[in-house]
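In the design runs reported in the main text, the only information available to the sequence generator was the tokenized backbone. The following block is the verbatim input for one such run; it is reproduced so that readers can re-run the procedure and compare outputs position by position.
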């Protein structure tokens, strides 16, 4: 029986051993925070006095002790009498519990940043701040530790990416991290360096505009001049890369598709469209396009809700309306929902099934309320894992009654939704693979070996994502070298092609 606590999009305890693993175990907010405190302490436990000071600061000792006893009683009733041990005035957690924040820290330590950012998609600790200054200080320290670890890992990851053939592959990770870290100067400098490296002028200027005030706030003239000079130095490097044609221009193989998605976003902000489907087969770069679109949405002051539909794994049902309702609760727009839909939304949040028609109307109203507070982009990756009938009913409702400022982009299989606006991408040609290789690292014209390009295209079946993985693995295995940001084959072409085929297999 696996227990997990979520602290980012929602503060709740879940138990996969129950008949409804996605329905929270109702133990109350402060008992849930107590679980987080105990999980953070590990085998050392937490002094009862420290817990009282954190969670019931400002109340009398008698009231704080009584509240703590009630919380312990709720936890033991939900988790079992042996789950918590009270020994020598300290509390110890005796059952393994997964906390999303600590799981993400583990993934960061292992260098699995994308997986960590799939778990933590917003600034950490906000939902744990339920008491006075002492708890607020604990939360600040928790967030500072997480942010520091994430920033250090991002810095190391970007450095490694620039040494190898994959800066374009890593750059979207920096954009996703902004949802967690905000406009942290260290992250903005990394993004600015990425924009200069990839010769993305538009992204460079957007980031520079954010960085200049952030880098000089509260500092003197000399510090402001240092920031200005550093930005100008990177701008000069970007302009040089553009001039000699060596820069990357936002993944040219999907440039047209990205422009079409951006057009859908602009129409949505004007209230004339609320749905644009992204159709294509797995491995053609669909998730990359979603991340790029989200990055541009955030750069323009919008907000994003990014949902990945789960497959049909046992015990993990995929319910589109429920997932949307849960994700949208993180925004205040939920307070503006029409009262007649409140009960339906409450049942959705609890995992209860409601008549699809009522639930679609309720979610449409919830989307309207959230979008009413500012532009909102909702992406549904791998949406074909959801119940197609329910999903299509919602999409057609949004098509019939558009919501100003809202764009929903579901990733679907080809020909799944022919009656809705969509952008379709597919496998790329050898020329597309050639462009992809050039996007990963500069390759002098003399090094464009046609058999190599054709072999990459063949073993990847024309799928850009798989082609990038194959080339990165070749580089890691020592069959490709990057010298002065240019590729060189480290073995004969025959040996490289042989290694390419075996690596792809």
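Verbatim output:
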């Amino acid at each position: 029986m696996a227990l997990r606590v979520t602290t980012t999009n929602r503060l709740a305890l879940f138990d996969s051993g129950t008949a409804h693993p996605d329905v929270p175990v109702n133990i109350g907010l402060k008992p849930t925070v107590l679980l987080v405190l105990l999980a953070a302490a590990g085998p050392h436990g937490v002094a009862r006095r420290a817990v009282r000071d954190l969670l019931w600061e400002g109340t009398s000792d008698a009231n704080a002790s009584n509240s703590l006893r009630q919380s312990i009683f709720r936890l033991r009733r939900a988790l079992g009498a042996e789950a918590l041990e009270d020994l020598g005035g300290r509390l110890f957690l005796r059952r393994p519990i997964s906390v999303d924040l600590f799981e993400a820290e583990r993934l960061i330590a292992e260098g699995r940043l994308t997986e960590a950012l799939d778990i933590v998609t917003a600034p950490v600790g906000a939902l744990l701040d339920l008491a006075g200054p002492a708890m607020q200080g604990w939360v600040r320290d928790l967030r500072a530790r997480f942010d520091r670890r994430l920033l250090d890992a991002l810095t190391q990851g970007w450095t490694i990416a620039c040494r190898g053939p994959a800066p374009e592959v890593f750059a979207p990770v920096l954009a996703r991290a902004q949802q967690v870290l905000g406009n942290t100067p260290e992250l903005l400098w990394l993004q600015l360096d990425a924009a200069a490296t990839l010769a993305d002028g538009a992204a460079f200027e957007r980031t520079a505009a954010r960085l200049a005030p952030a880098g000089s706030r509260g500092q003197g003239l000399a510090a402001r001049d240092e920031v200005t000079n550093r930005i100008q130095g990177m701008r000069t490097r970007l302009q040089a890369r553009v001039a000699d044609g060596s820069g990357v221009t936002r993944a040219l193989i999907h440039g047209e598709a990205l422009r079409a998605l951006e057009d859908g976003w602009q129409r949505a902000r004007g209230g004339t469209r609320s749905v644009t489907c992204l159709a294509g087969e797995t491995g053609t770069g669909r998730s990359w396009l979603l991340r790029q679109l989200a990055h541009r949405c955030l750069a323009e002051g919008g907000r994003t809700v990014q949902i990945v539909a789960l497959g049909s794994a046992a015990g993990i049902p995929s319910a589109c309306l429920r997932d949307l309702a849960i994700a949208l609760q993180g925004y205040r727009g939920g307070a503006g929902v029409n009262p007649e839909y409140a009960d339906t939304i409450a049942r959705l949040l609890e995992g209860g099934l409601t008549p699809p028609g009522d639930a679609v109307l309720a979610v449409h109203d919830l989307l309207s309320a959230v979008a009413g507070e500012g532009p909102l982009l909702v992406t549904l990756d791998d949406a074909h894992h959801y119940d197609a009938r329910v999903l299509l009913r919602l999409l057609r409702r949004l098509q019939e009654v558009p919501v100003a400022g809202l764009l929903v982009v579901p990733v679907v299989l080809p020909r799944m939704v022919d009656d809705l606006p969509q952008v379709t991408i597919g496998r790329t040609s050898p020329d597309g693979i050639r462009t992809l290789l050039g996007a990963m690292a500069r390759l002098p014209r003399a090094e464009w070996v046609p058999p190599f390009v054709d072999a990459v295209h063949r073993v990847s079946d024309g799928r850009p994502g798989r082609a990038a993985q194959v080339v990165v693995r070749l580089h890691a295995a020592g069959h490709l070298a990057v010298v002065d940001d240019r590729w060189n084959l480290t073995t004969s072409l025959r040996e490289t092609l042989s290694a390419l085929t075996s690596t792809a297999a």
